Amino acid sequence: MPVVVVESPAKAKTIEKYLGSDYRVLASFGHVRDLPPKDGSVDTDHDFDMKWEVAADSRKHLKAIKDALKDDQTLILATDPDREGEAISWHLLEALAPALKKGSAVSRVTFNAITKTAVTEAMAKPRQIDQPLVDAYLARRALDYLVGFKLSPVLWRKLPGAKSAGRVQSVCLRLIVDREMEIEAFKAREYWSVHARLATPGGDEYDATLVSLAGKKLDRFDLAAADQAAMALSAVASRDLKVASVAAKPASRNPWPPFMTSTLQQEASRKMGMGAKACMSAAQRLYEAGLITYMRTDGIDMAPEAVMAARDAIKAKFGDKYLPKSPRMYKNKAKNAQEAHECIRPTDMMLSPDKLKITAEDQRKLYDLIWKRTIASQMEAARMERTTVEIASPDDQIGLRATGQVMLFDGFLRVYDQGRDDDDGEDSARLPAITEGEAARLVAHAFDDELAKAREKGGDAVAAPAGLKAGPGLLVSDKAQAAARQHFTQPPPRYTEATLVKRMEELGIGRPSTYASIVTTIQDREYVRKDKNRLIAEDKGRLVTIFLLKYFPRYVSYDFTADLENELDEISAGDRLWREVLSRFWKDFSKALEGTSELRITEVLEAIDDALAPHLYPPRADGGDPRECPLCGQGRLNLKTARSGGAFIGCTNYPECRYTRPLSASDGEAPIGDRVLGEDAGDQISLKTGRFGPYVQRGEATEEAPKPPRASIPKGWEVATLDLDQAVQLLALPRPVGPHPEDGVLIEAGIGRFGPYVKHGSKYANIADVDEVFTIGMNRAVEVLAAKQTRGRAAAAAPLRELGEHPDGGPIQILGGKYGPYVKWAKVNATLPRDVTPEDLTVEQALELIAAKAAKSPSKAKKPAAKKAAPKTAAKKPAAKKPAAKKPAAKKPAAAKPEAE
After folding, report:
1. Cα(596)–Cα(548) distance, rounded to whole angstroms?
2. Which residue has the higher pLDDT, 29 or 889?
3. CA angle at 300 for the pair 511 and 370, rounded to the nearest 5°
4. Global model pTM greater than 0.90
5. What CATH architecture is 3-129?
6. Where are the domains of the chain?
7. How far is C-alpha 45 from the chain's CA centre?
8. What pLDDT shows up at residue 53?
9. From 145, 294, 416, 527, active-site residue
10. Where is this region: Disordered (predicted)?
11. What is the CATH number of domain 261-379?
C-alpha cells in the first residue's frame, strides 16, 4: 500500500482515519536532517555546499519508512503547506533516496486543513516538490547558520558573558533595548485638566471637561502648573453655565478580519496572557486534530465555502439581522506569497466552543478565540450614536464639553471585540437626555469622595489658594462641584509579546513561522526577562546590542533585515537564485568579521562606554563632571563587566573606592556606594555593593581574615533606608530558634539561596516572609517543618495500568503525572503522545516509547538493567533447591543502617 509521510503522530492518526486501510501513514517527527552544530557545515569556499546529518532520534523513524517502502515504492509526502513543510519533504526524499528503486512514484500533496474533504481532494491533486520553496529554506538556514556560527564566537571573545547572536533575534533584541533606552531617557512633563459635574433641569448628572478658557481653546499643556489650574478651576466654579449645542452623529464599526499568525499571537497575549510559543503549540494541536486550518499564515482571506458556512452559522445562531446582505471579503496584504494561505479559522463553523470536546484548557480557550473572531468577521457592523454636548458661560469665557455614545445595534460585538494594548481614548460614557439652551447646573459635593481618597493615599498635597481644597495631585473647588487633576506624560510602554510581534510585522522582520521562536530565544539567552507580561532588556542584552551596533551596524539594521526577508521571499517565488543571495551577503559579512579580529576587550568596553555615555552619565544639575565619582571625588566612573555577563558602573579608584551602581539605574535614583552604618561589638558595619548586588559586611578584609562576615540584602528591603540594627540582624544569621522538642537537635532560621527558611538537622523548610526569620518561635518552626515533612511523604500514586515485564526485567507501568500520563520502567519515564490514551497503549508501543526516551538518557536505561541481573540469579537458586543460599539474603543489616544514622 502507498506510504504517506507527515510530521507528527497525531497528524498521522487523523489522516489515516480519513484515507482508510488502503494507505499506510507514518510520521517523520519533524525534520529528519539538520546542519551539524559545528564550524564548516556551510562551506563558504565551495558555493555554500551544506553538510547535512541525520539526527539520532530520526534514524528509527527513517528506518520505519524505509521498511514500509519495501512493500510498496509509492511515496506520498504530505508535510505542512509552507516553506518549512516543503523543506521537511525535501529532506525526507534526500534521506530515502537510497531506499527508492528506479521508477518509484514520489509525489507531494498539501492541504490547508486536516479534514476528510481537504485530505481526499489533496490526494487527487499530487504535485512534485516545489524547488523554489526549498531554495528559500536553504538560503534562510544557511544565513542563520553563518551569522550564528561566525558572529557568536566574536561575541564570546570580545564581550565577556555574552552568549550568542542571531540574524533576526539580535534585531528583535535591539527593538526591546531601544525601547528601554527611550523609557530611561524620558522626562515627564506636568499638565492639568479641569472637570465639572453638571445636572440637567430634570436632575440627571453628567461630567464635562474644560476645553476653552478666556475664549481660547485649551491645548494639552496650557495648564502646566497648579497655579494655572487653580485659576481655571475658580473660573469654572464661579460662573453660570448653559448648553450651547448638542450634536448626535451616527457611527458604525466594522468587524476585524479573521486571524493570521501574527494577529492570533497578539490577541492570545492580550486576552489570555499566552506567550507566542504557547499560542503556537496550542494551535498546532488544534490543527492536528482537524479543528482549525493551518496556523502559520500571512493570509486573511477565507475559502468561499467557508464564508458561506460562517453565514449559515450566524443565521442559525443569531438570526437574519446579524447577517450582512453580502459576504465580507478580506484581501491579503502578505509580503510573503508562499505563506499567504487561507486565514486561521475553524474547519466546521457549526462547531461552537460549547460543543467542543477538548479537555486541554489552553486549546479550548484558543479555539473559542478563533471561532468567535471568524464568525464575527462575517457579521453585520455595530451601529451607535455618538453625542457631543458643548457647554458655555454667558460671557463665553468658559467652554466645557461632554461626550458619550449609545449602542443602537451591537452587530458583531455580540460575539467578539478585539482587545487593545493601550487605551485608545474612546469615550463610551452614557449621557442623559440633554437639550440645547437648557441650564447646566454645577452639582455641589460631587468630588468630595475623590478628594478623600486622594488624601488617604498620602503624599504631598499641592498648595491650595483661597476658596479651593487640595489633596495630592488634586484641586477641588470650595463646594466640590469642580476639580482639577494633575497629570504627567508617560514614557512609551514596554513591549509585550503581542506588541513586539506587531512591531516586527510592521517592520517586515521575521515571518509567521519564526515569531514564536525569536521571542522565546532572546528570553532563553537571558538577554530579556518578562515581568508582568512586559519584556525588559537585561544588562547583558544591552551590551550585546551596543556591541553589534558599534561593530556590525548593518546586520542589526531594521531596513537591512527586512530587505533580506524580501529577498528570501523572492527566492521562494523563483525570482532570485539562493546562492547569489548568500554570496552577496557573505562578501560583506566576512569583511565585517575580519574588522574585529584585532580588537581587545578593553577597546570594546571603552567603545561601549562611549556609546552609552549620554545615557550612563547624564549632565549633573550643578554643572559638574558627570563622570566624577560621587563617593571619593577623585576617581572617574566607567563601565565594568561582571562574571555573570552583566555590567555595572564603577570607580577607577578601586579598590580604595568601592563605589558602584547598576547599569540600568532609573533616572534620579540615588547612587549606591560604600557607607558605614555604625559599630557593633567593636566592629565597623558597612553597606557595600558588589557585582551581585548590595550587601552588609562586618569589619574589613585582612590577611588573617580575607573574607569578613557578609550578608546579602534580602529582596524587598530598601537599601537606601537600611540601618545598623537591620545589618546586625542579617550578619547574625542563621539565627538559633532552639532545640527541637522531639530529638533536641537545634532548629535554625536563616536566608539562603532559595529564600528564607527554617532548618532542623539536614532538613529545610521554606517560610514565606523574610521578616519572619527574625521572629519565628519554636511552635511555628515545628509546624512549618512538620508541614514540609508531610508533603514530602505523600503516598505514591497507584499505577493506571500494569503492562507486564520488560524484556530486560522489571515492570512496565502507566502512571498519571502532572503533565499527563506516562510509561515508567526502572528510571525511564516516557510521556504518552497526546493522541494515545492509557487504555489503548500496547506493550509494543510502550517499549518503543521507552527505547526512544532511553536513547536520550542512556545512563538511566543501563543502571536498572544491571540491577535486574541479581534478582534473576537469586530467582534460580530456589529452583535448584538451595535454601541455604537464601538465608544470607534475609540477613541484610546494611539496608537498615540509614535509619540508624
Report:
1. 11
2. 29
3. 95
4. no
5. 3-Layer(aba) Sandwich (3.40)
6. 3-129, 139-186+493-603, 190-249+384-488, 261-379, 675-791, 797-832
7. 39
8. 93
9. 294
10. 853-901
11. 1.10.290.10
